[in-house]
């Protein structure tokens, strides 16, 4: 029921919007880390293809991650990056070890 | 020169080989965590598509990660999973925050 959840979220920005998307992703970190159930929320940028970002996230439960997905800061982000993201994938995972 | 490095390695097993690949991936954990420069080496399996695995790795430097890529256990793994992996991608990343 309330097993921990790992999220690997991959965001690929449009080449002309990398800095704008990066700033918006950074703006998510502080309010998300303050959310209930957030254990880890680390943003990474690819060294070879800087338009590729990955959030590595650990949550106490899927329920609390779903609550995060409905948060005001994520809604604000979605509006702010409209048209600037080429692709977005999210994997819901469990930590094997 | 010796900046820390994050690796996001995505391994997709062939459907008929998921358990075999998983066992081989697990066998990498202990010897890799014992390697010089390894800060974190966590294996994850996708909840919706269990043939998808992700290693989330943090290394003290790219040099020490490259040494890991030449390790005996990784060579043994490469032989063991031959023909059982549908796709493999690795992203070299830096932690923004």
What can you see in these coordinates?
The structure is a homodimer of 97-residue chains. Chain A has 97 residues and is an alpha+beta fold. Chain A has a single domain, classed as Alpha-Beta Plaits (2-Layer Sandwich), CATH 3.30.70. Chain A contains three helices and four strands. The first copy, chain A, has helices at residues 18-33, 62-69, 72-80; strands at residues 5-13, 38-46, 52-59, 85-95. A four-stranded antiparallel beta sheet of chain A has the order 2-3-1-4. In chain A, a hairpin with a 5-residue loop joins strand 2 and strand 3. Chain A starts with a strand and ends with a strand. The mean pLDDT of chain A is 96. Chains A and B meet through strand 1, helix 1, strand 2, strand 3 and strand 4 of A and strand 1, helix 1, strand 2, strand 3 and strand 4 of B. Strand 4 (85-95) of chain A pairs antiparallel with strand 2 of chain B, so a sheet runs across the interface.
Which helices and strands appear, and what pairs or packs with what?
Two copies of one chain form a homodimer.
Chain A: E1 5-13, H1 18-33, E2 38-46, E3 52-59, H2 62-69, H3 72-80, E4 85-95
Antiparallel strand pairs in A: 1-3, 1-4, 2-3
Helix pairs in contact in A: 1-3
């Amino acid at each position: 029921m309330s097993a921990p959840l790992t999220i690997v979220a991959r965001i690929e920005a449009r080449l002309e919007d990398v800095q704008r998307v990066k700033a918006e992703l950074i703006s998510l970190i502080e309010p998300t880390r303050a959310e209930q159930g957030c254990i880890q929320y680390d943003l990474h940028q690819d060294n070879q293809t800087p338009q590729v970002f990955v959030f590595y996230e650990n949550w106490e439960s899927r329920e609390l991650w779903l609550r995060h997905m409905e948060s005001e800061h994520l809604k604000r982000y979605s509006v702010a990056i409209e048209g600037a993201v080429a692709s977005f994938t999210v994997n819901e995972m469990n930590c094997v070890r």
